[in-house]
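User: Can you recover a sequence for this backbone? Please restate the input before giving your answer.

Assistant: Of course. Working from this structure:
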């Protein structure tokens, strides 16, 4: 199915399956693809973020289940004071990936070693890239933008409710309203 993702700012993107079919002004794409489904978004459509803290956030941190919020809070525990078995690690990683998607993260950097974490990331469709030296405190929305989208390339991107990359840097990745991985809408703000 063809889908036009039309942000309020900048070019729209036509997605066909897992690939970008066209990029350009919404009016031109709507005329060229009259049968395409249209998704209107506030803000700007960008290639998505690479979070450099993959191992720290998905293997070392613990993402509490909502049922644990009263006891553990809702934020990731970067140094959990309790043992985490494989089943709990896998569930934590799935919640962590979902939280990253809500921040426009489409890839993580670093070597993932835990089988349940590797499986959770693989199933989500989030890419794993080679890691590099990192400093600072791990954050769900940390990272750099991927290279620009191109026709024929993967339909992987995020939409942020900001005017441009400068405002995104100022307001942060929590402004994400949608994340698309290989043509699949995997996160949409309510």
């Amino acid at each position: 199915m063809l889908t036009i993702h039309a942000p309020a700012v900048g070019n729209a993107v036509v997605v066909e399956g897992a690939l970008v079919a066209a990029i350009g002004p919404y009016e031109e794409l709507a005329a060229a693809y009259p049968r395409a489904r249209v998704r209107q978004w506030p803000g700007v459509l960008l290639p998505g973020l690479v979070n450099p803290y993959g191992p720290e956030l998905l293997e070392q941190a613990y993402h509490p289940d909502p049922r644990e919020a009263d006891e553990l809070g809702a934020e990731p525990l970067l140094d959990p004071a309790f043992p985490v078995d494989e089943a709990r690690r896998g569930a934590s990683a799935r919640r962590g990936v979902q939280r990253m998607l809500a921040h426009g993260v489409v890839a993580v950097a670093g070597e993932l070693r835990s089988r349940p974490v590797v499986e959770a990331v693989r199933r989500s469709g989030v890419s794993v890239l080679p890691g590099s030296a990192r400093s600072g405190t791990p954050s769900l929305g940390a990272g750099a933008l991927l290279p620009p989208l191109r026709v024929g390339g993967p339909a992987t991107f995020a939409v942020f409710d900001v005017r441009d990359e400068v405002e995104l840097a100022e307001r942060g990745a929590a402004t994400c309203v949608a994340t698309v991985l290989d043509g699949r809408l995997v996160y949409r703000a309510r």
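That completes the design. The chain has two domains: 2-47+149-188, 49-129.
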